[in-house]
Design brief:
Radius of gyration: 36 Å
Number of helices: 20
CATH class of the largest domain: Mainly Alpha
Low-confidence stretches: 1-16
CATH topology of the largest domain: ABC transporter transmembrane region fold
Oligomer: single chain
Length: about 650
């Protein structure tokens, strides 16, 4: 794609251009600055063109009309004033004579006013529709990019800074910049026309106005850049304010906030961060305002002198009142145009700086891609061999290995249970298996080939997964379960079968609209808020619905009671037939069914085998299993004793 003024990546680098250190460096600096500016402006133009071509064409038309409109208005007004002056010079004029002189000028005025009203209506339509259309297009562009970005990026604060900056500004900035750009086109057309008019009696006046505008332009552009850099540096504070305010209205947090009395703490922290953020903004605004007042004082004095000169020239040259109106109107319009050019150009400049946030975000590179030019195809609906070979992993931006030199092999149909304390690396291992991340060292083989050689989307399609932080979606029950296999049309019968297998059918049938009941009270007033255990059953049903070859279950029954857990385990026995299964559970009774148990401690694989082998080895697994079994037995005995005492009391 050919970008006007260079590709976005080049444009984003120009922001980092250092200020010139000597006068010799100024021309080169300005050249690079203008190249960067027009590169971003070209990028924005392309965004609007891609969003809706007709809008851009209509904007061009209205910009040209708005440019010539003030000049036409000035001539029509001057003509009307001169016609009135001619009538006033007549002695005892008749109505017919007055009409002959005034009527053409008045008809012309009426026709022009109607045309302006019509064009303004069109312009208003463009303004309202273009904002919605372009904002929607840019938001979709950002969402599609977010869909492609590596999961690893979401672990980096720098990524959230890019995303927050892009999402905050990119929706509104493009259309603002385009409008301002066409406003400049209109202003330039008007200014050039008025300069030509005024040159007849005061050729130097426009030059004086332009020279007077230079200090204002320098100050304005300087503060626009300061404002941009301040906003970029303060991205963390804005995210903090959003976090505090959003948490206070989060329906899932409101109970705890109220019971623990945390609302005042969050409000206090919000105001504390805002005070720090606002103090810098206020200093910038105050500084710019002080400079503007001083410059305005000088500019007003010089403009008054120019008005006096024009009045003397018109009077001495026996000009008419309409001529004075035309020339003074031209001077006023030139002064307004120059001021508008400075202000509008500075807003465009600031807007193009902010659009760089989107360019940087859209330039975010994706690393989780196939390493082969023609990726391998994933064979489906068959057994798979999976092998970890000396795999180590650390999260981006950290120095500690979460997994260290892990090696094991899983054969088709194996049921693998991952065992270990919290933080041992179990969930991270599953993320590597599904290629949500790539290993820092080592390789993972699928059917003898590195998983990085496979088509990524096909690879994801072979896994059916329930993670401990499973998704809860503001859709109907049917849709929530069918998300397990989104590529195929919703199969209501399979949805029900999956819900039965997950022990979810019973509570779903009690809902007001059964499987068509909307979940969560986010959009629908009749939405239902399931309990965490019910949500987990829906997530499990989603896994049953999935047509997967490898099943991944990360704490799938953590929020269920023992009876519901046992029912689902029995269903899992049927679900994992002919499938390779990876299972994580802190309830080690589930490990007894495994063909292979992997015991992790602090990111290292310390034991591997089946239940009988590891119990016989008397190692880490034996210690964990017997400790948990002893606790369960003790709790069971205490419960029985308590129930016995209760019966005796009765």
């Amino acid at each position: 794609m050919a970008w006007f003024g260079g590709p976005p990546s080049e444009a984003s680098e120009k922001l980092k251009e250092p200020l010139p250190k000597s006068l010799r460096e100024v021309p080169g600096y300005l050249k690079r600055l203008f190249k960067s500016f027009f590169s971003r402006l070209g990028y924005i133009m392309r965004l609007v063109w891609e969003a809706k071509k007709s809008l851009l064409l209509l904007m061009v038309f209205t910009a040209v009309f708005n440019g010539v409109s003030p000049v036409i208005a000035a001539y029509i007004s001057a003509n009307l004033l001169n016609s009135v002056a001619n009538v006033l010079t007549l002695e005892a004029p008749e109505v017919s004579e007055i009409s002959r002189i005034l009527l053409p000028a008045m008809v012309l005025q009426f026709g022009y006013m109607f045309l302006v009203s019509l064009i303004n209506s069109i312009s208003h339509y463009i303004t309202r529709t273009s904002s919605e259309v372009v904002t929607n297009y840019v938001k979709c562009k950002i969402m599609n990019k977010a869909r492609e970005i590596d999961i690893a990026s979401f672990d980096m604060p720098e990524f959230y800074e890019k995303f927050e900056n892009a999402n905050r500004e990119a929706g509104s900035r493009p259309i603002e910049v385009i409008r301002s750009t066409f406003s400049i086109v209109s202003t330039l057309i008007s200014a050039v026309s008025f300069i030509a008019i005024l040159a007849a009696i005061a050729w130097f006046a426009p030059l004086v106005v332009i020279v007077l505008s230079l200090p204002s332009a320098i100050i304005t552009f300087s503060y626009r850049k300061k404002n941009f850099h301040y906003m970029r540096r303060r991205s963390k504070e804005r995210r903090q304010m959003n976090y505090y305010s959003d948490t206070l209205v989060n329906k899932d947090m409101v109970k705890e906030l109220r019971l623990f009395g945390l609302s005042d703490t969050f409000i206090f922290n919000y105001n504390k961060v805002f005070a720090k953020y606002f103090s810098g903004i206020r200093k910038l605004i105050a500084g710019e305002t002080a400079w503007s007042v001083g410059i305005s004082l000088v500019t007003t004095a010089v403009n008054c002198a120019l008005f006096f000169f024009i009045a003397c020239t018109v009077t001495l040259g026996n000009g008419q009142i309409g001529d004075y109106s035309l020339y003074t109107g031209a001077l006023t319009s030139i002064a307004s145009a120059v001021a508008s050019l400075v202000t509008t150009t500075s807003h465009i400049y600031e807007g193009t700086l902010f659009i760089d946030n989107m360019i940087v975000f859209m330039d975010e590179k994706r690393n989780i891609v196939p390493t082969l030019p023609t990726p391998r195809k994933v064979e489906r609906h068959c057994g798979h061999t999976i092998e970890f070979k000396n795999v180590s992993f650390r999260y981006p931006g950290t120095k500690r290995d979460v997994l260290k030199d892990i090696s094991f092999r899983v054969d088709p149909g194996d049921t693998v249970v991952l065992v270990g304390l919290n933080g041992a690396g179990k969930t991270t291992l599953l993320k590597l298996l599904t290629r949500l991340y790539d290993p820092t060292e080592g390789e993972i083989l699928l059917d003898g080939y590195d998983i990085r050689e496979y088509d990524t989307e096909e690879l994801y399609g072979m896994y059916g997964a329930i993670f401990q932080d499973f998704g809860r979606y503001a859709f109907t029950v049917n849709e929530n379960i069918a998300f397990g296999e989104i590529e195929k049309p919703l199969d209501r019968e399979l949805v029900r079968t999956s819900a039965v297998a997950a022990s979810a059918d019973e509570f779903i049938n009690l809902l007001p609209n059964g499987y068509d009941t909307p979940l969560m009270r986010v959009f629908e007033k009749d939405g239902i808020e399931p309990s965490i255990g019910q949500w987990q059953k829906i997530a499990i049903a989603r896994a049953f619905y999935s047509d997967s070859d490898v099943l991944i279950l990360d704490e799938p029954t953590a929020s269920l009671d023992a009876i519901a857990e046992q029912e689902i385990f029995n269903q899992f026995d049927r679900l994992r037939e002919d499938k390779t299964t990876f299972f994580v559970s802190h309830r080690l009774s589930s490990a007894t069914i495994a063909t292979k148990i992997l015991v992790l401690e602090q990111g290292q694989l310390v034991e591997m085998g089946n239940h009988a082998e590891l119990m016989k080895a008397q190692g880490a697994y034996h210690r964990l299993f017997t400790t948990q079994a002893h606790r369960y037995i003790t709790e069971h005995q205490e419960r029985e004793n308590a129930e016995g005492s209760s019966e005796e009391t009765k």
